[in-house]
Amino acid sequence: MNLQETQKIEFEKLNLHEIKDITSTIIGERTKNLRDELEELLLQKELLEKNIEKKSHELQELKYSIFNEIESVIDKNDVTTLSKLHQAKLQSIDLFDLLSETVEGAIITALEKSKDSEAKNMIEEIIKELTFETIKEGTLNTIRVRKILSTILHSSIEIAEASPNFSEDILEATLKGMRSGLIESIERFKKRLAFMPLEAKHILIEDYDTIMQDLNQTDILFSQVVQTQANESTPTTKKTLLELNSKMHYDLEELVHMSKETALVMKEKFSSLAKTAVKKADTALHSNTAKEAKRMGTQAWGIAKTALGTAIKSAKNAIEPKQ
Length: 323
Hints:
By secondary structure, the protein is an all-alpha fold. Helices cover 75% and strands 0% of the residues. The protein starts with a helix and ends with a helix. 30% of the residues are buried.
């Protein structure tokens, strides 16, 4: 229906239903080409998204394959080299989508393969490593960090509730590991800010104001994650978590100190820049390979075991008198 035909219509004599019918007809006729073009673009978009997801999955699987090939040529008894390889793997594989299964596999392996006296320290080291490696994969913001910490703690709670004899040790080690991993992530962020030239456009900041606000309340974020997960757990687990979180009050002072230092560095370096910095792409690769996640959990345990063993040996050497 063209303009001349539209002008002949006596709209003032029509009721609402009739006006709706006429306007729908006009809109349908006049927008047909645009709607066809839009449908074609949406179809292309859907196909592109499916292809991106497929290629992302293939990329993740190829990474696994490459690391497995390298591992196959290393002597199984060469624990040091294998630990270094697994460390490189944790830093190369996209952990976020596998985080829950990896945490679960790592804690179970620590309980099965470590002596009772070592398991707690082992779990703390594992959680610290996984927290740090996962956070550093992308941008530092409250939503992402909260999701990571919540995922780790939730997985840990499930194992703790299934292992009542070790429940408190698992939960305490998890909270301490999460705190240490978060501190290490913020410290790394601070160092990168300190040496980043003002001219740099690709900064690890999504939004200046949001990051500044987040850095000044990391202790609150941490406690909120614990409180939320506690509320969703059994009464026994809730009681344990809240008691442990209360005891960690002074331990969180280091987290607060590091966060405020980082906020100060950021303010000094970037307050003169535009409030919204260039967003760094946080590529989300998807993988549902539970078997690989469990394998990586076991490898995370191995890395922690090696690191802990070195630390204990160094401590003993420092304490024992030389002959």
